[in-house]
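Example complex used in Figure S2.
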Amino acid sequence: MPITLSHVSYTYQPGTPYEWHALDDVNLEIPDGEFWGIIGPTGSGKSTLIQHMNGLLKPTQGQVLVDGIDLSARAANLRQVRQKVGLVFQYPEYQLFGETIHEDIAFGPRNMKLPADEVERRVRRAMERVGLDESFRDRSPFGLSGGQARRVALAGVLAMEPRVLILDEPTAGLDPRGREEILSLVGAFPALGMSVVLVSHSMDDVALMADKVLVMHRGKVHMLGTPPELFSRRAELEAIGLGVPAAVQLIDMLRSRGWELPAGAVTIEQAVEAIRKSLRTKAGGGRG
Amino acid sequence: MDESYIAVNQVSFAYPTADTTAEQIRLALNHVNLAVRPGEFVAVLGMNGSGKSTLARHLNALLLPRDGTVLVDGMDTREEKQLWAIRDRVGMVFQNPDNQIVAAVVEEDVAFGPENQGRPPEEIRQRVAEALAAVGMSHMRERAPHLLSGGQKQRVAIAGALALRPACLVLDEPTAMLDPSGRGEVADVVHRLNRELGMAVVWITHFMEEAALADRVIVMADGQVQLEGPPRTVFNQADQLRAFRLDVPPAVSAAERLRAEGVPLPEGILTLQELVEALCQLRSAT
Ligand SMILES: Nc1ncnc2c1ncn2[C@@H]1O[C@H](COP(=O)(O)OP(=O)(O)O)[C@@H](O)[C@H]1O
Ligand SMILES: Nc1ncnc2c1ncn2[C@@H]1O[C@H](COP(=O)(O)OP(=O)(O)O)[C@@H](O)[C@H]1O
Ligand SMILES: [Mg+2]
Ligand SMILES: [Mg+2]
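Predicted assembly (574 residues):
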């Protein structure tokens, strides 16, 4: 289910004093099976952008195609699109509503008018995937820990078996383990042919997970590239209030101290590998 | 008495539950002891649900202990007549930049506290001006708060607390919802207030690299303080921290991996700067 945006612009509350041009001529194409990270300063249009990808918002100008279907077309079946393109909102724990966790997760598939046994199968599968065991089934979704509540919300979207999964800052406010768990969970989807779009404030998370990173700034696509490409443009990122992962900071600091290190390390693991190699070369009588 | 400004002694707390038949009361705080000394910067870490916010709310009498005592500048938080004196001394800043700001103009928002105290207008003006200057937001005093960035909103919230001239500032995950520059802005401002005004700070966070900059780190799990010490000592216990669903700062993690690969780095590396120094020394020694 490739997603294509052509010349998409979006204006909030047009014609009022609150009019705001939140997206400005956005063009992009997300192919199947890719993991995209979206970063950008607060207010740069990230949340507005992803709501265009499943038809929650319609472009003021331009076109959004999901699997070839024009979401603005009168005949477009938006309900179907929203099942195929699952969106996990920011702080989804505030949107849980079921009496039990089971009910909350079953809401989507029931809405799809699936037979009861299919709903059941999907709820089980979704809970399994996010790592919620049977004991959670009949518990209330309120009073869960941050990470658990996040997983219930994610399971609710997964139960619709979407082909594209979009998450708006899913790890904000989670403890480090909770963050790792969510990331490794969604990181497994591209291998199954699903694409993932992750909006994040964490350069480290994006460096670790993404095939491609999109940088939004003032409603425009400001930069686009692989993590190594993007994070080598540190000054441009810092100029708009973003940064680079810790690994890149480390490599830069060593370089400024005369180390010769290849570009491209964006995770701690990669930086460690580069440093180790460099030390070994030196010890083996290399230059330095 | 010791020299602590805030003294938490054997404090236990449980939230009221609707389910009165529950066999066991779940303690959100379980015999917690904590001392915050004047001018000290304390970071509090702990997995979601470990009791950090519950503890924070005890420090300025938003919650009262079920057992044990909390003393602020010698005053017991359970004594009602001290309530406002305590809240003047301990300011609170919360996670969400969008629901802490009450007024339609920045300076009105910052004036809210001293106005509530019934201070004379001239003094209010002065306090507001000082507080905004302290967080670097003077030039935005006439702005509408909802048009500010997340980091700017948090700085306004901090200024609102500062206008009461507290001796201690408690910040409950103040950077969780911010972008990288917002995080940096807020951390810089609070460290400066700590350094220049000697304000004690209790900083709750899930970012290990923020905790690395504190004088002391407290690790909570299951309503109890499990580890406590200077960052260098606490972050030297990586396995323990991971068992509490936490982690170590990136520099510690990189050093750990390099050591595992046989690179003879010294113990106790905490920051990227320290790691770079140690690596450069190793390299010139080979
Ligand atoms: N309902 C709305 N009315 C007017 N402006 C809005 C509305 N929602 C968002 N905006 C504005 O649109 C811009 C982009 O918002 P958003 O997409 O939420 O950014 P991000 O997710 O990158 O922080 C912001 O300046 C925001 O203030
Ligand atoms: N208002 C509340 N009512 C009932 N239980 C609560 C409330 N707030 C927190 N708790 C429970 O108290 C425990 C500690 O929560 P909290 O102090 O918020 O932890 P943290 O801030 O470390 O995530 C958790 O088990 C949580 O579910
Ligand atoms: Mg957003
Ligand atoms: Mg909390």
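The mean pLDDT of chain B is 94. Residues 5 and 214 of chain B are 17 Å apart (CA to CA).
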